[in-house]
């Protein structure tokens, strides 16, 4: 580190010979014809190419290729566009500003306050010396005026020092050191911002992945619920079909049981009729035996009654022929009766037979009515079952239509949501592209204006350098007398520059070139003032 003591202790002592050196340069500068441009700052041109700009920002060809690559990458990564808020952008912008400017301002303030303090001390010391010599004490106004004159003199000398080729070379190297330091800081900041951006993108990707998984899960659950509803609906329909099938089977079983009961009842009635007929035949047979054993006197009477009985039996047989064939057997057996009962017995038997025939007719009529009632009940149940089946089919059809309508409504709602989401994404993407386009146009316009300003400055500097070279050739005689003063001044300025650079935080690896370069020898080797064309060694990139 360079100490501050030798820098500031020599300022006042060297001020006078700086002013003398300025006076030596004054005649030649006033005799030149370029006095109209004397107000412009002049310095020696290092190279025709912008070395620092190319080192920091790359040349135009590289810039074009990088722009093409960036545009191609932008096209490729259009789907990976990240949108940040205004506050986040402002935070990144503030963080990207290097802190060297603030350090430089603080350093200048400290130096100015230190110089003002030293000037006051020197003025007080001069006042004391004058008082010792018997001179009049200076007033505060005189001290202030003298201090202002001294300040103006120091500023003028400092400005003249800055116009020296060695100082310009030194400033160029210092500027390069500052630039590469700023570049390192910017690279570090860029790496940090890139890491933060990558982390933010990673977090955003994770959030988007979580949202995607949530959406997938939601859709899966929705689809699962829909399928579950379908399965439940199908199960309900199957259960309904099973219930209807069971009901149909129960009705068929009931019908079969009723038919079996009816057949059994008819069979029982038929068996009872057979039993009654058999019993009647037995009774008749017994009666015939009794009649045969009766009085022989009644045989003739029976013969007379035989025709009547045969006629009656025939009528009975015709009446009962369709329903019972066995009744004819009874009529034939009646013909075997040979004995004729008494009139009263015959009348009673005839009355008894008529009563029996009437009861059979009543039973047949009852059976017929019961059969018709069963048939009517069967037809009624069939109609009810048919109506119930139609009603259930109609309800099932309505349920299916309702389910179909609800499904179509759900599908339309999902399609509308997907369409709205797609339109929102498209609108947002268009807005982002328009903003990017406006930013790109503004950046191109700003770069073009900056390039034009730099070209104008380079042209002005080139003209000033040409004029300065001509003036320098005319001042060849004064060069020998100024060499020693320049060497001392350059060394003093070198120490000051090194001190300033180290104070601003420039690493020593970038200030080593300034500390080891002999600017006076370089000037002797290049009498025309041309700086070496070789670029300062760039630091190793990480």
From TrEMBL:
Subcellular location field: Cell projection, Cilium, Flagellum
Keyword vocabulary terms for this entry: Cell projection, Cilium, Coiled coil, Flagellum
Main location as per UniProt: other
Cross-referenced InterPro entries: CFAP45, TPH_dom
Domain of life: Eukaryota
GO cellular component: motile cilium
Region (Disordered), start-end ranges: 26-45, 57-79, 94-141, 374-404, 429-470
Composition bias type Basic and acidic residues, residue spans: 94-140, 429-444, 459-470
Low complexity: compositionally biased ranges: 28-41, 59-72
Ranges for domain Trichohyalin-plectin-homology: 160-508
Family that this chain belongs to: Belongs to the CFAP45 family.
Name of the protein: Cilia- and flagella-associated protein 45
Organism in which the protein naturally occurs: Naegleria fowleri
Lineage, broadest ranks: Eukaryota, Discoba, Heterolobosea, Tetramitia, Eutetramitia
């Amino acid at each position: 580190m360079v100490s501050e003591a030798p820098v500031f202790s020599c300022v006042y002592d060297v001020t006078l010979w700086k002013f003398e050196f300025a006076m030596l340069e004054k005649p030649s500068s006033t005799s030149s014809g370029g006095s109209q441009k004397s107000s412009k700052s002049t310095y020696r041109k290092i190279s025709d190419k912008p070395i620092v700009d190319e080192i920091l920002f790359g040349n135009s060809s590289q810039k074009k290729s990088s722009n093409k690559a960036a545009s191609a990458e932008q096209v490729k990564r259009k789907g990976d566009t990240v949108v940040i808020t205004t506050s986040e952008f402002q935070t990144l912008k503030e963080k990207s500003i290097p802190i060297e400017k603030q350090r430089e301002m603080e350093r200048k303030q400290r130096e100015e306050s230190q110089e003002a303090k030293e000037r006051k001390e020197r003025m007080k010391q001069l006042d004391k010396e004058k008082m010792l010599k018997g001179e009049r004490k200076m007033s505060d106004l005189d001290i202030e005026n003298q201090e202002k004159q001294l300040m103006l003199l120091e500023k003028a000398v400092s400005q003249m020092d800055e116009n020296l080729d060695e100082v310009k070379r030194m400033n160029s190297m210092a500027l390069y050191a500052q630039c590469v330091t700023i570049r390192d800081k910017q690279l570090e900041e860029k790496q940090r911002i890139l890491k933060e951006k990558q982390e933010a993108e990673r977090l955003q990707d994770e959030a988007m992945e979580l949202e995607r998984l949530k959406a997938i899960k939601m859709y899966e659950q929705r689809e699962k619920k829909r399928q579950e509803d379908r399965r439940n609906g199908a199960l309900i329909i199957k259960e309904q079909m099973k219930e209807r099938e069971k009901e149909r089977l129960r009705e068929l079983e009931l019908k079969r049981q009723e038919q079996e009961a009816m057949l059994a009842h008819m069979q029982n009635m038929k068996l009872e009729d057979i039993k009654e007929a058999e019993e009647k035949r037995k009774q008749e047979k017994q009666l015939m035996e009794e009649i045969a054993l009766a009085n022989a006197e009644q045989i003739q009477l029976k013969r007379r009654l035989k025709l009547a009985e045969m006629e009656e039996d025939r009528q009975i047989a015709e009446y009962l022929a369709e329903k019972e064939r066995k009744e004819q057997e009874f009529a034939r057996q009646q013909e075997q009766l040979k004995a004729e009962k008494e009139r009263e017995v015959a009348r009673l038997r005839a009355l008894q037979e008529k009563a029996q025939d009437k009861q059979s007719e009543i039973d047949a009529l009852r059976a017929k009515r019961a059969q018709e009632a069963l048939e009517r009940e069967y037809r009624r149940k069939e109609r009810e079952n048919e109506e119930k089946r139609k009603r259930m089919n109609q309800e099932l059809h309505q349920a299916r239509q309702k389910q179909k309508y609800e499904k179509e409504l759900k599908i339309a709602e999902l399609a509308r949501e997907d369409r709205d989401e797609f339109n929102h994404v498209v609108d947002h993407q268009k807005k982002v592209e328009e903003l990017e386009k406006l930013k790109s146009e503004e950046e191109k316009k700003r770069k073009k204006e900056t390039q034009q300003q730099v070209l104008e400055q380079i042209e002005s500097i080139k003209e000033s350098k040409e004029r300065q070279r001509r003036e320098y050739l005319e001042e060849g005689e004064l060069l020998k007398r100024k060499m020693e003063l320049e060497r001392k001044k350059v060394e003093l300025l070198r120490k000051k520059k090194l001190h300033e650079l180290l104070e601003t935080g420039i690493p020593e690896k970038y200030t080593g070139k300034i500390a080891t370069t002999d600017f006076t020898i370089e000037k002797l080797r290049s009498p025309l003032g041309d700086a070496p064309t070789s670029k300062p060694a760039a630091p190793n990139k990480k």
